[in-house]
Amino acid sequence: MRQFQIVGRRQEKQEAALKAMGKLKYTGDLYVPDMLHCKILRSPYANAIVKNVDKDEALKIPGVVDIITYDDVPKILSMHQYLHVPEIMYKDSYLLERHVRHVGDRVAAVAAETVEAAEAALEKIKVEYEVLPSALDFESTLAPEAPVIHEEALKGDNPVNIRGNVFDTVDITIGDVEKAFDEADLVLTKHFRTSKPNPAPLERTAVLCVPDGNGHVDIWATSQGIHAMRMNIACSLGLPISRLTCHRVFLGGAFGAHIQTGFIENICTLLALRTGRPIKGEKTREEMFLSCGRHPMLLKLKVGFKKNGKITALHADVTDDTGAYAFSGSSKMMLAAGFTLSMYKCPNLRMSGRAVYTNTPPLTAMRGAGNPQATWAVESVMDEAAETLNIDPIELRKMNMLSVGDTFYGQGPAVISTIRSNGTLALLDKCAAAVGWEKRGHGRGTTPYPDKPWIRRGIGLARGFHTSGCGSEKPNKFIIDVSGAIVKMNEDGTATILNSAADCGGGNMSVYCSLVAEIVGLRYEDVHIKTGDTDCTIFDGATHASRGVYGAGQPIVKCAEDVRRQIIEWGARIFGCGVEDIDIKDSRMFLVADPKIGKPVGDIILKGISSGWGNVCSNHTVRPKACPPHFTVIFAVVDVNTHTGKVDIVRVVAGADAGTILNRNNVEGQIVGGVHMGAGYALMEDTIFSKEGRPLNAQFGDYKILTSLDMPPVEIITEETWEPTGPLGAKGIGEGVTNPVAPAIANAIHDACGIRIPDLPCTPEKILDALGAKEA
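Structure tokens predicted for Aldehyde oxidase/xanthine dehydrogenase a/b hammerhead domain-containing protein (776 residues):
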């Protein structure tokens, strides 16, 4: 591995001190004079037609300035996630609806002088509804008598033929799948069902829209992509994008919750243009639960094996519940099917699936976008196959693993990439040794507490990956992956980065500074990054798919290399030598032959500017030509109380190949966070609805997640590889850790007491039912 001066250290985030002192401004902290507050009236019904809205009494409340309904918004079917190529993005929603399709859907919006006045107005708006039957789950929405949830939708600009609430399908075959199944020695057909967890970031969605009185609006919002947000708002309002300037703001967590505009941004922009006054809107915690979450899926896997463990055929059939609207712009069914087929090497593959509407809140791409669902199914089947074939689960995975040089589906079948780095083999061995793999119970468990023989201990394994972005070797017609950056030198020898990639709290912006410092030869503290906006930064795709470092880092590397070249050329003029005779380190230029002879970089820059040589500045745009997997391995140790069904996670060993580690603090934080989110997915997290479609746990008091006291010790093992397509050899890490955690825990539960849970989460009730069925 290359030796670096800056990269790889535990660099402090540049905003760390501001966060620690409570001085960092998030969108919810922003205030401007003469500001109005927006509140949204939401439907109490899961499926209904709004027959009439009477807002007369509400308009009489002191402080109420404006109230809008469906009649007042542009009749434009809108996209809400500008990630995909426009021609394939689904458009199926208006800013406010006449046909409301889930509890919490948007009926009217109020702008008032105070939050209290806006909330009082909501109480006074009278709405007449025609209540319709609803479909809240897979079974009811696919039933012959299911209600029609959507009458119209567009895919790009073309009408979508929606039949039986199905709006997207796929069926692709590679090889001769049926023949391979006929010739297999073992065929496993298994059904899995996943849950609907919520990203639950601490920061709630907020937006501030400030009009300038001349038809232009400045927008600050919790967004994972300000250029995408600008496109979304412009599309839904029928505005030129030049009339909108979206500003980057630090995020207090995201995990997919802020990947698309959730209507409040677009509604506030419209109200700002109507009233001519600044508008601020902020979702309540319950509204957060009504606007995002991981897609529940039904996954049917059919996998064929030879006696030696080689996989010969795989058919993945996926049914994806997208909720009431296709918020994601494209269904996650395509992603889940692609990830399922990319877990292991197999010559005969088939993916089939469908995406369906239900009368539940619309969902989003929550940390993994189809991969946690796919990995849950595949790694559960692999564990069962290893047991049936009497092969060590580690060896079964090793013999079928994709290797360097193999191709895979990066984000569905349209995104094809080649693996160029893979540290999985080393991670499997290192993590197995660390966890004590030889002590597992082989389905019978061990007894850690002699006085409590009903508590059984098990060790489980799962491996996974996630892509670093969405790049493909050839431009694809599915998903956008483009990044841009500007790097300029200041007169004092410091550097400034101008880009728009969102930092969701993981430290991406500090990593960009370390890349520039490393390449140019500056001190870390001499590189600064501006929050920026859509007017002064180049287009960058949203921070998703673990592309924040890998994708957005690539143009920064190119800019830094260009800036260094320019500085060296100026230095050669000043020192009267060749460019090969000088170097830069710690913000100082010096002669290679005699390092004592040198000048601060600031002197070089100032001399060049004052001499009329120009400015040192560079801009680059990059379309990544790969989306290399960052590979992960999870070993979980659990205790299962066979009397109560309670599962305690005793210990986790987490292994990760993120390529070059650019900032170890950031990488380790992402690994622990991924374990936390995956453990919640495995054991407890789900959004529960009443039979009328009301969310029953849309508050933190009712929606259970692991606290810091519930978290097990996490031992982190990294395997540094060199990814030739990444910035200084780096890959992503943000999402890949979460994906294998749930199956690792489920496999550990099986190791402890011999039962398998096919449906997430693995609750005590399900465990007790499975134990009872096993005994019977």
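The mean pLDDT is 94.
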